[in-house]
Structure formats: structure tokens, C-alpha cells
Amino acid sequence: MNVMYSQQNQQISQQMMLQTIMQYQVATLDLALYLDTHPNDPVALYRHKAYSSQLSKIRDEYEMLYGPLNNYSIETGDTWRYIDSPWPWEQEWGNK
To answer: Which of 13, 59, 60, 81 lies at a CB distance of 3.0 to 4.6 Å from 67, suitable for a disulfide?
Structure first.
């Protein structure tokens, strides 16, 4: 029972981290597109730097815990774990 609960908590934590990563990716990309047309906006530039930094931190943390997010990531383990993760279409999103 405890093992099942622990695995469920780990899966929820992993999904929450992935959602946070996706949110930072969208925000960073959106700001980059905005900065293409407003390159002198100091607030947008500050936010882009802050979101990029946060994205880098959480992506690194995720990859240390669960393996690489893409095949460009540096493998931190002793094996190629990229192929072991569920593919995006295999993810079970939602509350169960």
C-alpha cells in the first residue's frame, strides 16, 4: 500500500513539474516573440530573463530526477534513459 501511494505521489510530482516546465516554455516563447517587435521594453526583457532562468532550473531538476526531456539533453545516469520515459502521447493526464 505504501509503495503504491509513493509511486502515485511521484507520478503526480512528475506531472506537476512537466506542467510547470510547459508553462515557463510558453511564457518564454511568448515574451521572445513580443521582444521581436518591442526590443526596447525593459519589463518584457526582465521577465524573459527571469522566466528563462526559472525554466532552466526546473528543467535541470526534472532531468536529474526523471531523465532527459529530449534527446539534446545531457544524460546524467549510466544508461540512455530518454527511451525509457513514456512518450508524450503515452502520458496519462488528468485526475484519477
So the answer is: 81
